[in-house]
Write a structure and sequence with these properties.
The protein is an alpha+beta fold. Helices cover 39% and strands 20% of the residues. The protein has two domains: 2-260, Penicillin V Acylase, Chain A, CATH 3.60.60; 268-397, no CATH class. The protein has helices at 86-96, 100-107, 157-160, 164-175, 182-191, 232-236, 253-260, 268-295, 304-324, 341-346, 349-369, 375-397; strands at residues 2-6, 9-18, 24-28, 38-42, 44-47, 50-52, 55-58, 63-68, 118-123, 129-132, 137-140, 144-146, 202-210, 215-220, 228-231, 241-244.
Amino acid sequence: MYKLTADGKTMVGCNEDAWRTTSRIWFETAKNESEYGAAFTGSRKVGPNQFAPQSGMNTVGLTFSRLVSYFPKSDQKSDKKNITNEVSYLTEILHTCATVADVKRFIEQYDHSIFIGDVFIYIDSSGNYLVVEPYDLIEGSDQYYVLSNFCPSITTNDKARKLERYRNGEDLLTNHTPNASLDFCTAVSDTMHVCRSRNGDGTLLTSIWDTKEGLVNLYFYHSYDSTVQFDIADELAQGDHIINVASLFPTNPEFERLASFKTPFNTASLRVSLVILAGILTLLAFSFIVFSLRNRKTDSAYKNLIFISGLNVALTFYFFVLATNIGIYYFDAPFKHYSSSLISMSSYMPFLLLIITVPIFTYTIRFVRNAGAKAGIKSLLVANNLIYLLSIIAFAYWGLFNFWN
């Protein structure tokens, strides 16, 4: 995100980078005379027709943006109020505050460490801003300011510039005279957008907030050829309502591809299938070990079952990784986890399975033809191979072999 103050007004641009397909904009009226109406955008569903605010602005121009970030947990105790509902808390700030000074007084009442994985920024119509970290508040009034996925209190600018989207935005604002036109702000948002090589994933929604005129321009799925503009006061006059952002724009092939892409995180049957297959692989591994130990002295063909059992255990672990790490389906393959080398190493499992499939299938054919082998273990081995084949097909569909990207 960025803010810039020029030509007598402050503009705020926010890029939400996500692989969700449920982007929304909604409008909430003031509930009494002391409150302000506000508009919000977001895509993470937290309840029936309720979404977590990602950015927003109220009728006096107070704007905010929320970004994923990292801050080490602290054991320090706090006697401040606990935040029990993130949506109510975040919306109340815009409904009750007019300036960043108001926001600061509001936030200082609460233990903000619940947002250990987020950094927030609030900007008022005068151009003052407040960066809200889990344990720190940073105030500023620079003409322009850029923030990405980091906490400024623990991140040097040199380290921040390793993030391409941040570097692009900072360079554009540094090398040009900022102005408050929509064209200039669109150019800044465009240069900071993301479009990853897999599944077209990247910037889901761009919002540009005009704090003086009370306008917001939306750009959908990193396409900057068309925009939809809302006058917040006009929308609030219609009462509380929520709009599906995708319905506002022409068909976007990249977004349609994303929307039709099935993963265990958007298709419950796939998640259940992973659990079932993991359970079957574990049972097969146990059965192969038992059969192998019982027959190791009479038939050497059973010895290879120990290797297959180990492979089953590794594949079961990988199924667990697939069911708990959504980034695997969207970031480049092999997936590199930000903190777990074990998960990063497991991302080579599809390649290992693909390489050893032919030897295992060959072994299976010979084992089935072995007249001395028991029929029960033959059937289990064939079933095991079918799971391998099914896994390879799934891995190919999810793009887990596409290391060339």
